[in-house]
Every structure is written in C-alpha cells, then in structure tokens.
Amino acid sequence: MVSSEFLKDNHFYKITVGDNLSSEQILEEIRDDIKEVVPVGAVITEVSFEGPEIVIYTRNPGIMMEDNELIKKLAKKLQKRVVIRPDSTVLLDEEKAVEKIKRIVPEDAGITDVLFDSVTCEVTIEAKKPGLVIGKSGETLREIMKYVRWAPKVVRTPPIRTDTIAGVRAALRDNTGQRKQIMKKIGERIYRKENIKTDWVRLTCLGGFREVGRSAILLQTPESKILLDCGVNVATENPNRAYPYLNIPEMKYILSNQELDAIIVTHAHLDHSGFIPYLYKYGYEGPVYATPPTRDLMSLLQKDYIDVARKEEKAPPYSSKEIKETIRHTIPLEPNDVRDIAPDIRLTLHSAGHILGSTSVHLHVGNGLHNILYTGDFKFAASRLLSKADISYPRAETIIMESTYGGAEDILSPREDSEKEMISIINETLRRKGKVLIPALAVGRSQEVMLILEDYMRRGVLEEAPIFIDGMIWEATAIHTAHPEYLSKNLRSLIFTKDQNPFLTDCLESVGSTSKRQEIIEGDPCIVIATSGMLIGGPSVEYFKALADDPKNTLIFVSYQGEGTMGRRIQKGWNEIPMRENNGKTKVIKVNMDIHTIEGFSGHSDRKQLMRFVRAMSRKVQRILICHGESKKTIDMASSIYKKYRIETRAPMNLETVRLV
Q1: What are the residue boundaries of the structural domains of the chain, listed by start?
Q2: SS3 284
Q3: Which DSSP symbol is given to 581?
C-alpha cells in the first residue's frame, strides 16, 4: 500500500452516503483516492477544488514530479483534471528564484521576463527560445522546480510588445488571495453534487437569433444554468436592440439568486463578448470560460467599447473595474481540453477558424443524455491567418449554427480570386495617385489583409506604397504574435522558424496620433487599414470623411456590413451620407470615391461551406437551430438544410425556448 502524509487531514474516509454527495464529501473521497496513487514520502498539505480542477499542494513537488505519468494516473482514477502545485511555504523568495532560474537556464534561451503568480504558485518564464528553457525531455523544467519550488511555465517572447497582455497580467496579480478564493468557490459549485439525474435540457434565445449582434443563449438542465456568449449589437442606435434580453423573468431570477453556473465565450468580437462585464457589475460571481487569446482580445475590445462610448458622450454599461473582474474570473482553456463546468455538464472547446482563439462549444450533458454543439462564428476553410474549423466531435445531437452568409446568394469568391481582385483595385488606385481606405475589424480581418498586402508587395505584384495601420489594429496584431500556437502552421513558420515575420515588415506603419493621420490624408498615395470595419466610429470614419469626395480614391469593404450602419448605406449606393459633427450639426458627405466590396476574406463560412459542414455532421445530428444571421437568411438556411438532409431544422426567434430533451 502506498502511504503519504497529509498535514491538514491525516485521516481518510470512504464516503458512501447516498448518490448525491456534497462538495466536501466528494473532496474527502478524492483525498482517499489520491492516497493510493501518490509516491511514498510525498507530503501533501492540501487538496482543493479550484475552478474545474483538483489541485494538490505538496511540500516536496520534486518527489511528485519524478513520476512523469503521475498526473495521468491521478486524472484517470479521479476522472477529473488534476494539477500538482508546490505549497506556498516552500517557495523560494522571488528575487532569489529569478537568480536561480537564470543560472539554471542557458543564456542562449534569451529570457526576457520572469513573472510569479502566488495563487497558482507558478513562475512564467518568457524566453526567445523556449525550447532551451524546457530542456531535453523537460529536464531543465524539473531542475527549476527542484531548486526554486515554483511550478515553471514557459512562453515564447512575443515579437511585438502588447500593453493589453501586460494589463491582463497585472489584473491577475492584484488581489491574489481574493482570486484564489474565487477559484475555490467556483470549484465547490462545480462539484456541489455527484451522480445528477438529468432528464431534460432546454435553451432560451436571448439574442442573436434572426439577427446579427448581441449573441446570447441560456442553456438549462434541472441542475445547471449556462450562458453561451453575451454580446452587444454595436451597429444599432436602438437601445432596445443593443443588448441581450437579460431582463426576462427567468434571467432576473437566475442572476439575482446566483444560479448562473458559467459563461462560455466563443470568441472576442463584441457581438459575442461585449456585455459580459455588465453581469459582474450587477453581482455575477461565476466563471467565464474562453481560450487565452479570447481573454486577451476580449479585454482589448471591451476597453475600446467603453472608451468609444465616452468619446461619443454616451454612458457605457460598465467600467474598467468590471473588465478587470471579468479577467479575474476568466478560466482559460485550450482547445480540446475537457472540463467539468457544472455537476451535469462537461465542456470542450474546438478551434473555429474565425479569429484568433475562436472556438466552437461542445457540451456533454448528463451521463450521455445529450450533446450540444454551438458553432459560434466559424470558418469551414483555411485562411492565411488560421486553420480550418475543427469538427472532430464525438457526438452532437443538437447543433446551434451561425448563418451570417447563409442566404442562397451568399457564395463567396475563392480566396485567391479575391486577393487578386483586391490587388488589382489597389494598383489601379495607386497609379492614378489615389489613396485606398480599407475599413476592417481590428481582430481577424485586419491581420488577414495585412498578410495579403505584405506578401504581394514583397513579391513585387503590388506596387510599393506605405501601408498605414490605424486604430487598435496594431495592439490586436501584437496579441496575435503572443499566441503563435493558434495561428496557421505556415504563419507560425514565417514568424519563428524563418525569421520573416510579415507583421514586422518595413512597409507596415502604425499610426499613433491625429497629426500623423492628417499627414496621411494630405500626403502621397498610400493604403490605409483602419477600424471600425462598418464605419460606425473610429479612425475609418475620419479617413472616409476626408477622402470620400475625391474620385481618385477608393474604399474597399472586406468585412460584413450590419444593417443600419454607414457601411451598409454606402454598399447600397448612397452617394450622399449625412453625418453629425461634434457641434451637433449635420454635414452631408458626397461619395465620389470608388466603392468596392470583396466578400472572399470573410472569417465566416459562406453558404457552400455551411452546407458542407452540415453534410459532414449529418450522421451525428438530430436537430439544427440556426442563429446569427439576418432573418431572411436564417429562414432560408433552415429550409434548405431540411430539404436536403431531412434533419429537423429551425430558425428560432429571440425569446423562444426550445426543449432539446
């Protein structure tokens, strides 16, 4: 029998008191199981639930880590995610730990930062060559843990420094004791009961159904309540259409009684994540699950959202305080990691190919009762920036699927044709001494366009001209380079293997001031990529006002233009655009510049790709619910799927509730 010493609880008892155990009873049973697996001499000081993980604290982590298979053995026995951490009492002083780490790690590794997290007892080592920090078969990492006791985590030094990630790290370092209590409280709620007899599942459409914007879905079982996305509709002036229906009676009850178990965010765009901090403003204390890039980008976009509101003299729905609370409560998950997030719900995120860190959500409900797939926004084709959406789902009886380009006419041009079309338009504009304005979403579309322009200019196909990046695009790009493992294989190779980072080319220049913007407007022919993508605010509007009247100039739309936005009006052919000035007066902007729309760069699946996705999933699925599309397109998509595959398909309206089981 393997023995071990538990300083806080020297006695173990097997709990057999009925089917539904309390979280503390479940934890006692887990301690008993751990005792049977850990090596002789291991000194365990604490075992606790922290978020979706079981955390084992030990005074001698070196002994625990000598068995490379220990965590796998524990996870298999406990059927839960297990993390081993050093007890805080044995951690080396931070200053001495930095010195020791730098002595252990070869100088060639190029350590650029060492960060400590007293909640997780982790030390994050940022280095230009992370492989040298890890060492052969992890030898260097084990040596670090042996001598400094902090659990080492290695990340690659991002090629472009980012204030957003620095801010996220600062928010996580603040109030570390409070954050640990947050994680424990979440863990206790997740494991509050065992062997739940779930016999029904239903969902309520709170936003983003028969419309684009304010996506939000409430999923309920007899035991659990989960919110899938919680966004804002930035394209509307109507306050009744801007936010999800969180004021319906059942949501009021759930929120006021702290019954919401979790929020899952598919990706960072504001129409999916923009309203989450509001929930913390009004008392939500639970977790947000998202990938690390989504957490970082979400923070950037939410901050920009309230900044823009203040500049426009509008009252934002929350403040930076609630954004920091969102960060502290966010539990980052990697794609394909499986986690319990409620007593009867297990979550797995799968890469969606839409933007950096975007995922589709797979939920396993009950003991095999039902499996739900919420696609979020997804791209069922590869791009320069990202790989194709992953569809390796074991089961999916119900699919909730986006349909932004789900209309019968929504067939996007092949990517190569779209690229050639854009390059041709830009060359023609530059030759006539004009300027090119490309309004683009800060996250996703901007980086895709940057990659295309850099490639064609480097190969001499695109005429040489400065490419100016305005708005928060540069900061978003920096976040992309901080998470290279989420980028396409070819792009990762360019950034890190061949030392040809396309985002650091000389032809790209970030615009950092209004005076520089004015120089560009008055200067020589150039290309400008600016936010926002729908011309509803941001520097793209300033460029448009200055450039629209000159027929030598060109505007190229590469993003979806929401109904009611200025971008949609221009797409429809309006040649006079009324715009309100800062003094409250209205000025009419005459549109003489060339207007082009190139849909082939979309991060969404087009009609053909959506139907191919359904065909690939048709053997597994029983029901499909269509969302995230204009009303006509969602109805057409639902009808087409049913006619072709005879799968029960619906396009619900906001406020409808659908029983799945």
Answers
A1: 5-89, 91-157, 171-409+604-659, 415-601
A2: coil
A3: -
CATH architecture of 415-601: 3-Layer(aba) Sandwich (3.40)
Token pair, residue 340, equals 């319990």
Record the pTM: 0.91
Tracing tokens 């011309």 back to the chain, one arrives at 535
Write out the CATH class of domain 5-89. Answer: alpha beta
33, 36, 38, 41: CA torsion to nearest 10: 130
Q: Report angle CA 220, 222, 224 to the nearest 5 degrees.
A: 50
Amino acid identity at 84: I
The number of residues in the chain equals 661
Give me the half-sphere count of Cα atoms (radius 13 Å) on the Cβ side of residue 247.
4
**DSSP structural state of residue 137:** G
pLDDT digits (tens, 9 = 90+) for 368-382: 899 999 999 999 999
Q: Which of 563, 655, 641, 652 is nearest to 406 (CA)?
A: 641
Q: Do domains 5-89 and 91-157 have the same CATH topology?
A: yes
The pLDDT of residue 204 is above 90:
yes
Nearest Cα residue to 155 out of 114, 99, 108: 114
- 22-52 in b/e form (b: 16+ CB < 10 A) is ebebbbbbbbeebbebbeeebbbbbbbbbbb
Give 509: exposed, middle or buried? Use CB within 10 Å, 0-12, 13-18, 19+: middle
**Chain CA centroid to CA 594, Å:** 35
Instruction: State the chain's mean pLDDT as an integer.
Output: 90
The 3 state secondary structure assigned to 469-525 is EECCHHHHHHHHHHCHHHCCHHHHHHHHHCCCCHHHCCCEEECCCHHHHHHHHHCCC
Specify whether the CB–CB gap between 226 and 363 falls below 8 A. yes
Confidence of residue 145 (pLDDT cuts 50, 70, 90): confident
- Closest alpha carbon to 623 in 394, 341, 404, 395: 395
DSSP code of residue 354: S
Structure-token pair, residue 228 = 């899938």
List strands edge to edge, sheet with 53-58. Answer: 5-6, 43-50, 53-58, 81-86
**Angstrom distance (rounded) from CA 412 to CA 424:** 18
Q: Distance from first CA to last CA of the chain, Å, rounded?
A: 46
The residue whose two tokens read 């969302």 is 627
Q: Count the neighbouring beta carbons within 10 Å of the beta carbon of residue 252.
A: 11
- Distance between CA atoms of 118 and 581, rounded to whole angstroms? 50
User: In 28-173, where do the E strands start and end?
Assistant: 43-50, 53-58, 81-86, 111-117, 122-127, 151-156
User: String of b and e for 630-648 (b: at least 16 CB within 10 Å)?
Assistant: beebbbbbbebbeeebebe
> Is the CB of residue 515 less than 8 Å from the CB of residue 324?
no
In tens, the pLDDT along 378-411 reads 999 999 999 999 999 989 999 999 999 999 999 9
Please tell me the predicted confidence (pLDDT) of residue 15.
Answer: 31
Q: What's the fold here for domain 171-409+604-659?
A: Metallo-beta-lactamase; Chain A (3.60.15)
Q: Which residue type is seen at 539?
A: P
- Give the residue among 113, 121, 126 at the shortest CA–CA distance from 151: 121
Fold for the domain defined by 91-157:
GMP Synthetase; Chain A, domain 3 (3.30.300)
Q: What number is the average pLDDT over the span 501-526?
A: 91
